[in-house]
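Quick one:
INPUT:
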């Protein structure tokens, strides 16, 4: 399997792990009555993310951020693979993205500034670099 596809598969597993961690914390804090409900605004008053503790709220935002980043990263991997443009550098950039995403979650959870933003930037630039490589 190409390194880019391996990194994409692991990024999917990371997304699943993030969801599991968030779900565990949210259920413990908010209870199943809220987390298993249809989450109607009229009943809850405000989104669950806003009702959660500071750190659990950060996990919500980190999960959403990874969904956003994963879209662009998946696009980069697909273009590289289908365009037969993979190289050692594109593989390195894919693993760089994954490493940045792994570091991003605890950096966000613990509120590490400016590290969270810098780690995000590394992952973003790695993804953009992959797309650039697909075009040359």
């Amino acid at each position: 399997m190409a390194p880019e596809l391996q990194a994409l598969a692991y990024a999917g597993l990371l997304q699943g792990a993030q969801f599991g961690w968030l779900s565990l914390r949210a259920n413990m804090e908010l209870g199943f009555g809220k987390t298993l409900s249809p989450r109607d605004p009229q009943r809850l008053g405000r989104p669950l993310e806003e009702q959660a503790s500071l750190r659990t709220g950060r996990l919500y935002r980190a999960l959403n951020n990874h969904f956003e980043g994963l879209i662009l990263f998946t696009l980069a991997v697909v273009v590289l693979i289908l365009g037969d443009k993979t190289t050692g550098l594109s593989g390195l950039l894919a693993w760089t993205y994954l490493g940045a995403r792994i570091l991003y979650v605890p950096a966000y959870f613990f509120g590490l500034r400016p590290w969270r933003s810098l780690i995000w930037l590394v992952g973003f630039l790695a993804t953009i670099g992959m797309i650039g490589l697909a075009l040359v």
